[in-house]
Amino acid sequence: MNQERWDWNTMIPVLVKAITDTATMVGLALGFTIIFGLIVGVLLVSTDDDGILAAPFGSRRLGRALHAVIGFLVNIGRSLPFIILMVLIIPFTKLLVGTFIGPIAAAVPLTVAAIPFFARLVEIALREVDHGLVEAAKSLGASKLTIVWKVLLAEGRPSIVLGLSTSVISLLNYSAIAGLIGAGGIGDIAIRYGYQRYQEDYLLITTLMLIVIVQVVQLVASGVAKKLSHR
């Protein structure tokens, strides 16, 4: 067992590298998750029987089929444990970035895992929007895009922000698992130094870092959601 503890000259470069790796993989994944998660969440609501895209191209059957397919794919994405998902999409990850090791490569499975999760949270947020506002916008001749942007997303912003904070925390948890297969990051340091090398100082510091990050994310999201809320 290594008896050296709290050697900051050694620890700081390791921890800085871990934070950088975690920020890289979570940041990349979060950007794509927001874009595609919003799109999928909007489609889940819009293609429902009473949605604004219930009958695309004049076909209600097409709308129901689209809704069923999107919902099915989202459910599959949410049902797979992350560590299994990482292994399953290794060929896809290598195709996109040329490798499956490192923080950039880890962003691929992180994104695939987070999109269905965030999409469902977006769906829940949009379903809370008063349907009367949508009907009022329709009666005024608003386009479908305007209804989505100016009514659904605008009114659902507080809940979407809170859902986004939950997604960020989930990404942080997933990134710790990704560290097990060479992604690096805070979780990797906790396992490699804290557990495998019995250096409790690394385990304690990385745990405190994750706790602080989660608390900051939640506090910021709650503050932003409160400001966006009309209540």
Outline the structure in words.
The chain has 231 residues and is mostly helical. The protein has a single domain, classed as Orthogonal Bundle (MetI-like fold). It has ten helices and no strands. It has helices at 8-46, 60-79, 82-88, 90-97, 103-127, 131-139, 144-155, 157-178, 186-195, 200-228. Helix 2 packs across helix 5 (103-127) and helix 5 runs antiparallel to helix 8. The longest helix is centred in the N-terminal third of the chain and has 39 residues, at 8-46. The radius of gyration is 21 Å and the shape is elongated. It starts with 7 loop residues before the first helix and ends with a helix. 35% of the residues are buried. The model has no long low-confidence stretch (mean pLDDT 90).
The class by helix and strand makeup works out as: mainly alpha
Oligomer: single chain
- Looking at CATH, the homologous superfamily is MetI-like
- Beta-strand residue percentage: under 5%
* Annotation field: number of helices: 10
Mean pLDDT: 90
CATH topology value:
MetI-like fold
* CATH class type: Mainly Alpha
Helix content: over 70%
Q: List segments where confidence is low: pLDDT < 50 over at least 5 consecutive residues.
A: none
What's the CATH architecture name?
Orthogonal Bundle
Q: Distance between the terminal alpha carbons, to the nearest Å?
A: 57 Å
Apparent shape:
elongated
List how many beta strands DSSP finds.
0
